[in-house]
Design a protein that fits this description.
single chain; 285 residues; alpha/beta; Nucleotidyltransferase, domain 5; 2 domains; four-stranded mixed beta sheet; 10 helices; 8 strands; 59% helix; 17% strand; Putative sporulation protein YtxC
Length: 285
C-alpha cells in the first residue's frame, strides 16, 4: 500500500492550520483510510506532516483537499495579515488609529466584492494544486509572497484604494466642520425653510407659509450657477447656509431625494433638520 505525505510549514496561525488539517484528515480516516499527522518545530516555523495510505487513486484527492484547506486559510487569515503588513509598511506616515481605519476600508472593499473574492480563491486553489502535484513540502508564507504575486499585488491595489477613500472621507468631514462653523456664527434669516426636489432634479425652497423663496440674497447664487459648473446640490447647500434657518424640513416625496445630499444637510445643520412624512409640498414633486 502506497503512502503519501505532505509537509506544510507556517509561521502564523499554527493552531488553526493544525485543527483544520486535522478535521480534513479525520474525514478521510472515517472513509477507511490510514492517516496521521506529526508536528515538528523548525526555527520560527512549525511543520505539519500529513500522511495518508490507501492506494494511488487516493493521492490526487488527498492533495486537492489539502490545497482546499490551505486556500481557505489564505483567504480568511493570511489575507488580513498581508493587508496589515502592506498598510503598515507602505503608509507608515499615518498613525495607528488612521492605519486601523484604512484597514477597515480595505476589508470592506474585499467583503463587498464577493465575485472577486471567489475568483481569487479559485485561482489560489489552482496554483496550490499545481504546486502540490510536483512538491511534497510547502511553506505557506513563502508560497503566498513568492508564488501568489498577482494576488498580493491586488491587495496592494485594494490598500491604495482604501487610502484614497480614507483621505476623501477625511477631507469631506473637515469640509462639513467648516460649513457647520459658518452656520453656527451666522444669524438665522428664517425660522423655517422647506426643501423640495422637483421632478426635473431642481431644488426649490419654500418658507413656513409655503411661499417660494426667491429673495435677493439667492439671486447671486443663480448667477453663479449659470456661470460656473456648480451643481444644484452645491447650490442648495450654499443657499441654506446663506439663509441659515432655525429649522429645515426636507420633503422627500417619491423618494428621489439624493441620499448624499440629505446626509450632508443633516450633518451641516445638525439638530435642525426634519424629514416630512408626506404633505402637499411633497406632492409637488
Amino acid at each position: 500500500m502506497m503512502s503519501q505525505c505532505l509537509s506544510i510549514g507556517t509561521a502564523f496561525h499554527k493552531d488553526l492550520l493544525k485543527d483544520t488539517l486535522g478535521q480534513e484528515l479525520k474525514a478521510l480516516k472515517n472513509k477507511g483510510l490510514d492517516v496521521r499527522m506529526e508536528e515538528t518545530p523548525v526555527g520560527g516555523l512549525t511543520f505539519l506532516a500529513c500522511c495518508i495510505s490507501g492506494g494511488e487513486q487516493v493521492e490526487p484527492v488527498f492533495k486537492h483537499q489539502i490545497a482546499g484547506v490551505i486556500t481557505d486559510l489564505i483567504v480568511s487569515k493570511w489575507q488580513d495579515k498581508l493587508l496589515q503588513d502592506i498598510i503598515r509598511n507602505n503608509y507608515y506616515y499615518f498613525d495607528d488609529e488612521e492605519k486601523s481605519t484604512i484597514y477597515d476600508y480595505a476589508r470592506k472593499k474585499l467583503n463587498h466584492n464577493a465575485k472577486k473574492q471567489e475568483k481569487n480563491r479559485l485561482w489560489i486553489l489552482r496554483r496550490l494544486t499545481e504546486y502540490l502535484s510536483f512538491n511534497s513540502d510547502l511553506v505557506i508564507d513563502g508560497f503566498v509572497r513568492f508564488r501568489l504575486k498577482e494576488y498580493v499585488n491586488d491587495l496592494y491595489d485594494v490598500a491604495d484604494q482604501a487610502v484614497d477613500d480614507f483621505l476623501s472621507e477625511r477631507e469631506y468631514n473637515e469640509f462639513i466642520q467648516l460649513l457647520r462653523y459658518f452656520v453656527e456664527i451666522q444669524e438665522p434669516r428664517a425660522d423655517l425653510v422647506n426643501v423640495v426636489l422637483r421632478p426635473d432634479g431642481v431644488f426649490q425652497l419654500y418658507d413656513e407659509k409655503g411661499g417660494l423663496i426667491n429673495s435677493d440674497y439667492l439671486k447671486d447664487f443663480m448667477v453663479d450657477l449659470a456661470e460656473s459648473e456648480i451643481n444644484y446640490e452645491d447650490l442648495l447647500i450654499s443657499a441654506l447656509i446663506t439663509i441659515s434657518p432655525k429649522k429645515i424640513t426636507v420633503h422627500q416625496g417619491n423618494g428621489g431625494f439624493p441620499a448624499g445630499t440629505l446626509e450632508t444637510i443633516c450633518k451641516v445643520f445638525s439638530g435642525r433638520v426634519d424629514r416630512c412624512p408626506g404633505c402637499t409640498l411633497c406632492r409637488r414633486q
